[in-house]
Amino acid sequence: MSAQLRPPKAPAPPEQSTDPQQHLGKPDAGWRAEVYEVIFESHTPVGRAFDLALIVAILLSVLAAVLTSIEKVARDHHDWLIAAEWFFTILFTVEYAARIVCVRRPHLYIRSFFGIIDLLSILPSWISLFVPGAHVLLDVRILRLLRIFRILKLTLYIQEYSMLGAALVASRRKILVFLSVVFLIVFLLGTVMYVVEGPKHGFTSIPTGVYWAISTVTTVGFGDLVPKTDVGRTIASFMMLLGWGILAVPTGIISSEIAHQRGARLMAGRICARCFTQGHEETARYCKQCGKALPPVQS
């Protein structure tokens, strides 16, 4: 009896690198490779120490920028604060240049999210040489603390952050349509309030009425404009109740999109160990291609 022919074994899926900066291109050897390991590879002892020192420097630089905005502190410690500002500016400039030099594809780093943040953190000081007062924008350095997620290996938070961003992008049209409807409502009701209350009660123009409608429907209510007539108070009561529902709609849109993406991720993540088929439903127990038992769903 001839041997039974077996179908060829499907190739194993390619292994994914654990280095989030691999696309930048690590040099093979030399001082650039050593600098790359220190700056980008936070899983090494030296790289982790560098990143933690960077976090401390960022916090101190933001603290110096905040203290500069306090008149008494800025007056009493002017020289020290100026020296600290330029010390951190030069330090971050050297670090930014080192990140560009030590990678094979520097343009990818420059155009990346962290690359843009790193550039924005040093620009205000250099611009202040030509535009006085630009140094107040140094608080943008606080955004560099987003690196702490990578440093502390909080991959779960990175995934959830990506999921939230994707949900916002996917639901942008629904939110835009919703906001346009809200704008029409506040514009119409603001116009009605201008007609009902009039300049005598502070509603001097339609834009003023629209401003009042926005502050009311968002449940802010500054109190600078208050309806005096019974009709105006009735409209205001209606808008306050309407505001509760308006606040809930965007939350529901985004939550629904997040749930949809989570379900899609669970299905895409269930891979058959025998034939590597993907896209199984969450309730599936066996592979739809070869019949092998599937691994349990991990939430």
Protein model, in words:
The chain is mainly α and 299 residues long. It folds into 2 domains: 22-153, Up-down Bundle (Four Helix Bundle (Hemerythrin (Met), subunit A)), CATH 1.20.120; 168-258, Helix Hairpins (Orthogonal Bundle), CATH 1.10.287. Helix content is 61%, strand content 0%. It has 11 helices and no strands. The protein starts with 30 loop residues before the first helix and ends in a 30-residue tail after the last helix. Residues 1-26 are annotated as: Disordered. One of its GO terms (molecular function) is voltage-gated potassium channel activity. Pfam families: Ion_trans (PF00520). It is a multi-pass membrane protein.
CATH topology of the largest domain: Four Helix Bundle (Hemerythrin (Met), subunit A)
Q: Report the sheet with the most strands, covering strand number, pairing sense and barrel closure.
A: none
State the total count of DSSP E strands.
Answer: 0
What string, H for helix and E for strand, traces the elements in order?
A: HHHHHHHHHHH
CATH class of the largest domain: Mainly Alpha
| CATH architecture descriptor name of the largest domain | Up-down Bundle
Estimate nothing, just give the exact number of structural domains: 2
Mean pLDDT: 79
Backbone structural class: mainly alpha
Radius of gyration: 29 Å
Q: What percentage of residues falls in helices of 4 or more residues?
A: 55-70%
Question: How many distinct helices?
Answer: 11
In percent terms, what proportion of residues is strand? under 5%
Low-confidence stretches: 1-20, 150-156
Which overall shape is indicated by the principal axes computed on the Cα atoms? flat
